[in-house]
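Page 42, continued from yesterday. The earlier attempt failed because a stray header line got pasted into the input along with the sequence. Redoing it now with the clean sequence only.
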Amino acid sequence: MTDAEALSIDDGARWREILPARESVFGSVEFAAIQREHAGADPRLITVDSRNCRIAHPLLLRSSATLPFGERMDGTLFDSTTPEYSGPFAAGPLNAGTRAAFSKALSSWCELNSVVTEFGHLHPWKARTELLDPAGLELDREIVYVDLTLDEDRLWRESFTHACRKNINRARREGVRVVEARSAAEVDELHRIYEITMDRQGALERYYFSSGYFRSFLEHLHDNSRILLAEHDGKVIAGTLYLYDDADVYSYLGGADHAFQHLRPTNAIVYEMIRWARRQGKQRLVLGGGYGPGDGILRFKASFSPLRASFYVYKRVHLPDAYGALREAWRDHYGTDGETTRFFPPYRAVPAQSEG
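This time it went through. Structure tokens are written below.
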């Protein structure tokens, strides 16, 4: 027998019982609440109980009404994405029957609720990719992680590069101090640093977040987030927001004031987080990847660890006819016959000549 549910934020207690933050901070109802409040998402947790196995699949829905050509569509459509480093997750044995039950339940729910596409950011160690259509799996990039089960001396000698050790020592000599942000005013300093970093990189609008977004982690995920700030002569010069569950710590959002980059404040922040996470018994610090192979961001992260994990994404079209209509409306709106090759769904992409 198969039981399937689609939980919303209003089913918080049930959501928390099935997928608590200690198992998946990104899949938690607390993270979902932040996305609803600040990103306009409509979160759901799709759950399937079948043959002594419980599957939990967190999704964030976005309405076609948010598209610049959304008014052209006949009725409201949705596309879905998973939160970062998420599922589907499974507790219990998976077999062919369970996989078929999950696929049928998810497809039926998407059809009934006008969910056109699904894009997944899959956890490298926990996502049960056996539940997904192999044709939709795609290697996105290699990401860097630090093995926190190593003792501190081995991390220093064997995981960190010589340049990384020099930069940590330089930050210490220069008087860089790492502190944890606990007040709204301190969190606002991280937001300030993050914004000047995005400005320097020429980031698109979707990569900017309000100060309220950063503050919300103190309110909703205070037991599963940590904000570290690097100070020099009383001025905040770098900061990072980390999220964590029982096994993993994730570097989520951060930045640095480029004028103080010579002091290596971000090296000091990562080193402090590594030491703290080891004391908490965490297994890995997930630093993520870069914008492209071998870029400066990736080289910086790689200086802390030689370890890599394969980060996969998942792309699936649930409603082909609606998908085709959205693609056509996208082409008409932007006056282009072209289409990005990797962005999914393609009708969410902004052509280069239209970016502002």
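Notes: The two ends are 52 Å apart (CA to CA).
Reminder to self: strip header lines before submitting.
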